[in-house]
Amino acid sequence: MRPLKVSYVWPDSKAFGKIFPGDVIVGINDKEIQSLSSEEFDQEWKLHKDKIHVLVKPSQGGESQFVDLEMESGRVPSAYVSSIAYKDHAIAYIRISSFNDYTTKDLMEHREILEDSEAIIIDVRGNPGGVSKMSCQVAGLFLEDGVCKIKQPNRNKVEEIGSREGDYNGLVHLMLRDVQQEIDPIKSNVNEDTLIDVPLVVLVNSSSASAAEALTMTLQQHNRAIVVGEPSFGKGITQAWYSLKDINSIFGGYLTLTLFFIQSHKGKIYQADTVRRHIELSHDPIVQANQIIEQRTGQPNPIREKDYASEGHVIVPANHQKLSLDVADDPEEVRSIMKAFSSDQVKTTFDQLCKNQSPEECEVMWSLEVAKYMSEHWPTWPYLGTPQS
Hints:
Helix content: 25-40%
Mean pLDDT: 83
Shape: globular
Number of strands: 17
Radius of gyration: 23 Å
């Protein structure tokens, strides 16, 4: 099997300070990983329940070195919060790896850091989504009021299926029943005792998907945050699985149906598109690797929803508006931030500073500079949500 690349090290774990993001684990218990099958690797891992001996190749170069890692069990937090002292500014950094039932709780355990900060960075890079409703709960920490998102029924697609020959043994009737239900707009003000009003920066990349995009969309559409980074994955739909065993007892199987597509309170969608970014970056190693693969093979290599989704995956109204193109009503504050960080001179300066950093670290540095700029100009951010009647 291939060597293992470290993607993230939880600061509260026993591995923190021993291995670092970008490091490559090339050996385990004095054996080269490349010489092991997946089954043999699992055996090595399970045989040493308390401690494993790994050979690590540092991301910053240099000789590989042995590291002893202690095994830990327990719930891994879905969100981590730390305070960064950046150029005499207290910036809170939130890393949300996924959304689950504990995400808001994980954040509120660090409430003091969040409330004492001058600005906050929310990093959802690599976040595939998770429990959809939690994106609205997290948004509610930073919004005074307003609609988080709207689920629009995918009726057009199901009706198009139903217009074909055959009744699919009643399956279309079942699908139509599920998409007929009306979904009330989902509110974001679910944390009534908490409102954090400092400036926000949201950091995204090509692996930010689903609920991570919904959170970003909500904060961006309410002018609550500046979004920095790469084009996001573009999965703005809700799906359901149907068992086909009752219809076909021989073959069985499942059907995945897109029930809803996600829409902002302004009517914008990001399905097969991307969330809108105010400051666009191009440091994503996934995107860069994908470009190399496509150049070598001459074939497209899908990495985002628009590359995977087949034609007619979801039928949205003909007059729908893409979220990535929503530039019409930016307030003066947002426009000034975009102008301050959009010049070629600024980009060249930052790229020079990033030469000795990993792409991931470079994007965090960009976000810190944006957060610092915002905190210096607006200690309290003027846009905290749009009340809806």
